[in-house]
Amino acid sequence: MRRERQSDAVLISSLSHTRPPGRPHRHDRLSRFDSSGENASDRLGRTSSYLRRETRLGSLNKQDQDTTSKDYKKMYAEALQENEHLKSRLQDSKQELVNIRSQLDKLAQRQDLLAEKSTMLETEKKDKQALEKKVSGMEEEMKVLTELKTDNQRLKDENGALIRVISKRSK
């Protein structure tokens, strides 16, 4: 509103400086009327009506400014409230993001543990199979060894019998 009144004042002042040729300024006409004998009460009536009109316009402008300022205050309060609401939502979202990230980290750790366990299980299975192969190989060797021992014992017994037979004949 203030800008409008200022622009109106600038417009009026610019119009008063640009008068058509042959036309006197407004104050020139007033002074001419004064010299022509216009009475002061007419001039005061015009001035007072002008003042009343300006006062009414001023009060209307003030009411508009009050309403506008109240509207701005209301809009400001609403904007603050909305900002607070959005800040709380943002904070909640950040907290939720932190929780989700921690859950994701836990799941990744579990998967790593499971992967490690599965590789350990695979390694253990391979080790077990290798040990079983060794055991079966050793069992076969044990069988061969027992067979060799029995053959060795049998040969010792035969050798002892042969030595006795030879010693009886040589006597």
Written account of the structure:
The protein has 171 residues and is an all-alpha fold. 92% of the residues lie in helices and 0% in strands. It contains three helices and no strands. The longest helix is centred in the middle third of the chain and has 130 residues, at 40-169. It is rod-shaped and about 180 Å long.
Topology:
Layout lengths: L1 H16 L8 H11 L3 H130 L2
Describe this protein with a few key phrases.
171 residues, 92% helix, mainly alpha, rod-shaped
Short description:
With 171 residues, this protein is mostly helical.
Secondary-structure element order, N to C: HHH
> Low-confidence spans: pLDDT under 50, at least 5 residues?
1-5, 13-19, 25-34
Instruction: Summarize model confidence as the mean pLDDT.
Output: 78
Distance between the termini: 155 Å
Radius of gyration: 60 Å
Class based on secondary structure composition and strand pairing: mainly alpha
- Strand segment count: 0
Q: How many helix segments?
A: 3
Q: Beta-sheet strand percentage?
A: under 5%
Report the major sheet. none
**Coarse morphology:** rod-shaped
Helix content, binned percent: over 70%
